Each structure stands twice: as structure tokens, then as C-alpha cells.
Amino acid sequence: MTPDTLKKVSDWRFGDILFCVATDQQNDRIWFGSSDFHVYELNTSEEKPQRVAFEGDGHESYVTGLVRVGKALVSCGYDRRLVWWDIESKRSTRRTVAHDKWIRCVVASPDQSRLITVADDMQCKVWDATSGEMLASFSDHSALTPHHYPSMLYVVAASPDGRWIATGDRIGHVAIWDASSFEKVGELETPIMYTWDPKARRHSTGGIRSLSFSPDSRRLAVGGVGKIGNIDHLDGPARLEVFQWSTGTQALEREDNKKKGLIEQIVWSPDGKWILTAGGDNNGFVTIYDAESGELSHQDGQDGHIHAVAFDHDFSNFYAASHHRVTRWTIS
Amino acid sequence: MNQMINRRALLRAAGATAVVSNMAAIDALSQPSFASELARGEKSVILLWLAGGASQLETWDPKPGRLTGGPFSKIQTCIPGVEISELLPKMSTRLDETAIIRSLNTKIGDHGQAYELMDRGRVGEPGVRFPHLGAIISHELGQIDSRVPDYVSMYTSTEGRRQGSAGFLGARYNPMFLTEKMMPENIGRHDAISQVDHQDRAALRDFLAKRFVRDLKNPSVHSHENAYERVHGLMACDYLFDIDKEPQSMRDHYGPTQFGQQCLIARRLVEAGVPFVKVARAWWDSHGQNFETHQELCADLDQCMSALLDDLKQRGLLEKTLVITLGEFGRTPQINGSLGRDHFANAWSCTLSGCGIRGGVVHGKTDEDGQSVVEGEMNAGDLFATIFAALGIEHDKEYMVGSRPVPLSDFGSTPCREVLA
After folding, report:
1. Taking CB atoms and an 8 Å limit, are A234 and B289 in contact across chains?
2. In 3-state terms, what secondary structure has residue A34?
3. Which residues are in the Anaphase-promoting complex subunit 4-like WD40 domain (chain A) (predicted)?
4. pLDDT digits (tens, 9 = 90+) for B52-71
5. pLDDT of A93-147, one tens digit each?
6. Cys-Cys link to B9, which of A5, B2, B37, B218 (CB 3.0-4.6 A)?
7. A64 vs chain B: nearest CA distance in angstroms?
8. Which residues of chain A does B299 touch, with a Cβ-Cβ cutoff of 8 Å?
């Protein structure tokens, strides 16, 4: 059953752009990565929390992904680096050049033993989360779009059962991989999300920006944007497609013209009954859909694009990393 | 050689008043001297027009590490101490023929008005139809007896394709404008007329026209004759637009994109004597997803601009071809709520390469966040004066429009000597 309420309860303003967020399973600390190249901690239980920057050898460009593995945080950035951070000391413990181009996303395997990254070198790489050793590198994604421009590999997801990895790119291609053998086991196409404008603008701004397996790992939700009228702006409907990925069957297709722009993140409810999407154009949105019918259940918005969301331990709050702000919503 | 140039100069002087319809007199204050004609000798301009406004911060004036700087780093170029965006790696090795101007302050941030400003070098005025850059160049550098077009403009994407107008110079200097296809339309021989018939008709017309000209000493007759010659010239030069006639290796050098193909056509045109070619690459108006837009479009610009400069240089054409990379404005240092940058005309960049330019120079400076010009500010008139000076054209030469003198570049503008060879 979808939630009864969706409510924005807190808003912390900053001057930079926040691209990623991770939450603590024990208390009210959150961490986020910024356009000022830093990783920050914010204790949201304080009345007027002040963010604290992590120190040491960090990033040299935008911090675009952040994941917690045990007592460490691992961040990725457009500087091609992965950085390990000790949560308590708030200092970096390891830094490595992990890809040849921008790293777009990092996720952890469900048991947190591995990290999985994707980058604009079009490679998906698997790493030992503790040692930092690279275990595998593979790709099913073209370096160039069909119109001869650089493609981008935006997103990777790990299935809750730990068996599968999915990767999605700029031209709407999704590959699904065996998480043990790293062999490709499936693929999907979402061509509408490749927003190439052949005449008026001759470029594109869309692509697959979010992927998420259902709790039973059988369905895969794919998020991006639909046909854009004027790609000077993100002037297209937020687009969600859900597949029974093993058969390639599309189970759901939704476009939202009320809240436009990219779906940057998808989160399934623990019971698989509903799906939360977040993203936006120059304004952000949070939308909750019934996972079976696709019916829109709740929606809220804000100034500034939402780049990422993360739920807390009991799934009652989530935090959004956005343009110039971090926002907390509650659901019940 | 001198005889040929003198003949052209004479033809220019003789034909000027005949081919211009809406001016009382052209060049009345400054008849072209043979010396300046020699200095200009068959020079050309290729304007790479970055329609919509490319970001100076993601191209020629990067500010990494600042909140306004975006995610890209800067890279060292072949010129010690000069750094540009990492999005232009090929150009970073080819700056020895290129001057970067980082200090344009043109103030107008509206597409339409800014386009007019940067294509005419001055703000419009009621009652005067100022010519655009291509028309001025084609008027100044074009050959009256040329069989190729003087001004070709390729603008094949985005709405509101901006053609540019010859203004008071008259329709003779309007561009051959390509919007849908890269091959000009309606210049082919009609199917119903055979090649032999076509040649016979031309020969007969030529015979009759020459006799008519001999008997009737009137400039308008010369103009009429000249128009026929130009039509025949255009019909005969359609091969210039056919890049299939280039080796595959050359086509590969420019790359497979439309912009690359058009840049290759531009080289073919200037090689054949076309004095002004404009290649407009849309659409840089990145209000959303500025960085990804520039990843995509800068890859195109880097490939095509570097290939063009290489090609011109290898053919010995770069020393007489000025390559300009320019748009209507730059983009805001502030990054907006959808990772975009908006219109910004207060502190932005362009480049000049080749003919008359001192390569490796960086002129002007913006502050650490790119918000304002702190050294070497240039306006549109100054840029135009610099372009004219690089081509050996007197920037303060005046056209007479009725009884009003109009200088080529706006009143008070001065060439930037720092970037001139």
C-alpha cells in the first residue's frame, strides 16, 4: 500500500550544489557530496546543524556518488577518483584513480563487500570494498552515440539478492550482468530516453539516469526523461519504465508532465508496493507511484533539481541532495 | 600578378556603384588603392559561429576549483602558461596559430539583439540597415569578376536560423544561405536543357551581350552582364559542396558530424576563392545540463576546429584565411538549478586564428570567478576593428550612406594590436 502522507519537514540551505547523500543506520547523521569538491557530515538532530567537511586527500571535482560500507564512506567524482573516508575521524584513508573519465555513480553490493562504479569511459567496475582492489571491468555500452557524440554511462544498480548488476547509458541501453561471473545476462532498450534532437538543436540531454531493482530482484525500474520539446532546458516529462527484466517485458510506463525533468533516483518500498522517484528540471520533484497500477499517489516539489535521495533506517524519513540545499521529507 | 590585381581593383571601382541598389555611393571617401588591394590579396574568413552562446568557462577561460568553475579541469596548452578547458584537448596542441580573447564585454544578453550586435559589430539604429560581417568582408575582399559566391552561410539547425543581411551594401552581398541541405538548391542545370544546349545558350547570350556592351556604355549593363556571369559561376561550383570528392582520410580528419562536414566544405570554398564562409553550429544555449551539453558540443568543436586549422595550414591557406570562433555571448558563471548556465555578455571569450593573427596570445583577463573583465576589455566594435585589421582592411574606412559616413567598425572602436601579427 502506498504511503498516506508525504511531507517536507526540514530544509538546510547551502551555497553549493549537492549531488549525493548517504544516511546513518544508527542516528541522525547524514553525509553528502558537493560541487565544492568536498564530502560533508550534517547532524540533523541538532537545532541548527552546521555541516562539517571531511579532510585529507579528497576530490578535485564534483563529488557525484557516496555510499556507506561499514565504518567507511566511499565517494566518487568527476575527477575519476574513488575516495575512502573514515566516518569517525572524518579523514580520507585511500584515494585511487578508478576510471578514465567522469565517474557517475557508485553503489555497494547488499552485503557491502563490494563497490560497483560506472563512468563515462563506459566501463562498469567492481571493487573490493575493503582493500580497494579492482575485481572486474566490463561494458556493453558504446563510447559514441549513434550521432557520433560522446556517450555517457550514468547509472548502476545492484539487485537486493546480490545476484545481478544493471547499467544504463545515455542512449537508453540497459545491460544486466551476473554479479559473480560478470557475464551479461540481459539487456533492455528505452530509446525514448535518448533525447537526440535531429533538427532544431542537434544534441541531447537525456539518458537513463536511474535504475533500481525491486525487492524481489525480478523487476527493474528505469528512470529518465521523455521527449523534450526544448532541450535548452529539461523541458520534457519525467519518464519511468518498469520491466520484468529477465523477459524484457515492460510492466509499467509512466510520464509526468506536471513535474518535468530527469528522474535522478528511484527507490522501491521494502514490500515492493510503491516506487518513489526524485529529480526534476530547474525545480525538483518527489513522486510516489503505485508499483502495480502506476497510479500517482503523492507528489511534492521544491526549488532546484534533486540529484539524489537516501532513506533512513526505518524508512520513515528520506533526505534529498539538491541544488543549494538538503531537504528532509517524512512518509507514513 | 600585379596586372591581374590592378584589373580586379579597376573592376571593383567600376562596378561598385552599379551593383549596389540602395546606396548613394560606396567608398566615396576612400577609393581602394592598389597597395591595399595587394595587401588584402585573396584573403578569406571562416567564421565558426557557436549559435546560442558557448560557455567561456568550458572552453577558453576555465576557472576550475571555483564554485562558478564547473566540474571540468583545465589543461596546459602548447603555449607555456596558457591553459584551456580539458574539453578541448586537440586545440590545446594547436594554439600557436590562435589568439584567445578572454575579455569581451558586449553587455547584451538577449539572443536576437546579441546576434545582431556580434554579426554587425554595432548596435542597430533606426533608419540605417547596417551590413553584417560577412557582407562587409565579401564587399571588401570579394572579386567583382569572381565565379564563386562571395558569402556562404551554413546554418542548418535550430529555429530562427539567422541569415544576416547585407543591409545598405545591397542584395549583391547577401549570403548564399544553406539551411536544410549542405548542397545549394536550384543551382543545377534544368533537366529539360541538355549540357550542349546549356553551353550554346550561354555562348549566344555572351556574344549578344558583348556587342550590346560595346555599343552602350552604361554601368548597369555591366551589372547585368556580371549577374549572368555569377549565375553561371554558381552553377559551375556545386562540386565545392560535394565532400565525396575529398579522400576518405580527409573526411575522417574532420569527423562524421554535420559540423565537421560543413567545416570541410568551408575549406573547399575558401580554397576556391570564396572570401567569407560562415558555419553555424547550434545549439549551445545550455540553460539545463550545461556540462553535458558542452561535453557533447565541445567534442565536435575541438575535432572540427583543429582539423580545419590543420588542413588550412597544410595547404598554405591559413596565412591568408582568418578563422573566427564566436557566438552571440557567453554563459553565466552562476550555475542554475538544473546544472545550466544562462546568457552572459559581460565577460566572455572568442578566438582568432591564422591570417594576420599573432598566435599563442591570450588577450584580456577575467576575475577569479569569471564575473567581470579585469584587463583588456573589448566590445563588439573593437573585435570587428581587430578582424578588419588582421585582414588588411582599414577599420575606420567609411562608407557613405546617403550623406552619412559609416565606418566599417563602429565609431570609437580600435583594433587590438596585441593579437595582430
Report:
1. yes
2. strand
3. 252-300
4. 999 999 999 999 999 999 99
5. 999 999 999 999 999 999 999 999 999 999 999 999 999 999 999 999 999 999 9
6. B37
7. 10
8. 149-150
Render pLDDT for B158-194 as a digit per residue (tens, 0 to 9): 877 788 889 999 988 999 888 877 777 766 667 777 7
Say which of B71, B288, B296 has its CB closest to residue A232: B288
Residues of chain B in contact with residue A281, where contact means CB-CB under 8 angstroms, are 288, 338
Q: Which residues of A touch B289 (CB under 8 A)?
A: 205, 234
B362 phi, psi to nearest 5 deg? -115, 120
Q: What is the DSSP code string of B14-79?
A: HHHHHH-SS-SBSSSS-PPPHHHHHHHTT-EEEEEEETT---STTTTS--TTSTTS-S--EEE-SS
Which CATH number among 3.20.20.210, 3.40.720.10, 3.40.50.300, 3.40.190.10 corresponds to the domain B38-182+252-407? 3.40.720.10
Predicted pLDDT at B38: 46
Q: What is the pLDDT of residues B199-231, one digit of tens each?
A: 777 777 777 777 777 777 665 566 556 656 666
Cβ-nearest to B292 among A15, A199, A205: A205
Compare all CA atoms of chain A with the CA of B255 and give the residue at the minimum distance.
A148
- With CA atoms as reference, the chain B residue closest to A236 would be B288
Provide the CATH number for the domain formed by A6-331 in this structure: 2.130.10.10
Helix (H, G, I), strand (E, B) or coil at B138: helix
Q: Which residues pair with A110 in a beta bridge?
A: none
- CB-nearest to A202 from B282, B285, B286 is B282
Distance in angstroms (rounded) separating the CA atoms of residues B310 and B287: 33
Cβ(B213)–Cβ(B229) below 8 Å: no
Residue in chain B closest to A206 (alpha carbons) equals B289
Residues 65-124 of B with CB under 8 A from A: 65, 67, 71-73
The cell numbers describing B38, all together, are: 595587394
Q: What is the ipTM of this complex?
A: 0.95
List, in order, residues 6 or more apart from A304 with CB less than 8 Å away. Answer: A280, A282, A283, A284, A322, A323, A324, A325, B337
The model's confidence at residue B16, banded by pLDDT at 50, 70 and 90, is very low
For residues A89 and A294, give the distance between their C-alpha atoms in angstroms, rounded to a whole number. Answer: 44
Neighbouring C-alpha atoms within 13 Å toward the C-beta of A103: 31
